[in-house]
């Protein structure tokens, strides 16, 4: 995670700050905040289940239609 912070050549002081940012070792905004993580993971986890339920209902409707036709 956060390997994008270490692409290319950097000075030593940048490496220390990037490692602290990635490891949440200081009071960094956003990605280290529990409220941000809770909101992000709730959104990320709810989207696939809604999509999966919609696909399931569509496939179930198609199967029921095919069974009733034959």
TrEMBL record:
Keywords in alphabetical order: Membrane, Transmembrane, Transmembrane helix
Top-level lineage group: Eukaryota
Gene3D superfamilies the record matches: Alkaline Phosphatase, subunit A (3.40.720.10)
InterPro entries reported for this sequence: Alkaline_phosphatase_core_sf
UniProt name for this protein: Uncharacterized protein
TM region positions: 50-69
């Amino acid at each position: 995670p956060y390997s994008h912070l270490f692409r290319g050549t950097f000075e030593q002081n940048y490496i220390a700050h990037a490692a602290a940012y990635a490891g949440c070792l200081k009071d960094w905004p956003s990605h280290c905040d529990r409220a941000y993580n809770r909101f992000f993971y709730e959104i990320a986890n709810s989207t696939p289940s809604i999509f999966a339920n919609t696909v399931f209902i569509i496939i179930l409707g198609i199967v029921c239609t095919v069974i009733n036709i034959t």
